[in-house]
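anyone else get weird line breaks when pasting these?? whatever heres mine. first is seq + tokens for prot A
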Amino acid sequence: MPFAPDEIRFDLACGVGPDGQWHGWFDVHVRAEALRRLGLHPDQPASRVTGASPPRWWHAAAERHAR
């Protein structure tokens, strides 16, 4: 893993949602210095879609192959 143990932290939280079902979620925290070593930095803009979505048949084929 490219991160030292003190550069990354995983948190898990879980609880009962409004629908009565249990839900869980993870938070991942990485120190900014560790990201800079990988060519990333916290001031970069968020990723954005830059092109059109694939055609509908592509999504259907991907779902068939996932099963």
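and prot B, same format (seq, then tokens)
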Amino acid sequence: MTAKHTLIALAMISLGILLALIGYFSGGRWLIIKDEDGFHVPSKQQLASQSYTLDAFTNIDIRNDYGDVEIIAAGSDYKLEIKALEEQDITYQIDNDTLFIETATKNKNRIEFGSGSWHSPSIKIYVPADNELSTLTINNNFGDIAIHQLHYQQLDLQQDYGDIMFEQTAGEKTTINQSFGDITFQQAINNGLTIDSEHGDIDMNGTLYGSSTITSSFGDTTLHLQNSKDDIGFDLTTSFGDITINDKEQGNTVSQVYNGEHQLTISSSNGDIDLSLK
């Protein structure tokens, strides 16, 4: 009897997926939201967009429960662009030289399922090109985070579900704690980097200065660094996986002693470590 019920359940799930795909490729869009009131379909089927020109600030503090976050250093203005299911979903203010952004309290613990361009709320922040920010604090629940061409003194990023991407950034101190998602650095410079990743790949192209520590539970760690091999110390360990340095396979543990300030420590529970140095 149990097997029969299982087969019926699987058949119903398969049918539901098939109908959803038919609807999607026929031009349909769908969205289901789980919030404090349970599961429901929103009455609005497109995002409310708002754009603001802001006064100058040197710090950013984001508390976001759903949606993507993007910070871009470009142009000459401080701007904020918000796309939300409701205009009141996301609030902001500038106080004590800090831009505060937060998801409205009534929408805490919201989770979204669906497809279509209108179902992806987002926060996009522009700062003038070549400006350096002091501190960035980002606490994001669901959604991707992307930071472009930004210089900053300190970043503290807490991410539950979603990918993280840095492009052409320079940071003096960067701390990342992520539960699920990939972390990517493209042409990034970090002076003091700490990453704690539970599930996801880490891919870095750039330069590491000072002391850097990467801890990964599940996922591969790939670093293509511009550092000279003779100018950095490293201690690499993986419990289940392979270690490769400059395309040469190593054991499960490999280290290089260096008396200078540039030190790299990578500890992986399940995943490969691939390190390339000049």
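btw re prot B: The longest strand covers residues 183-199. Residues 2-25 form the longest helix (24 residues).
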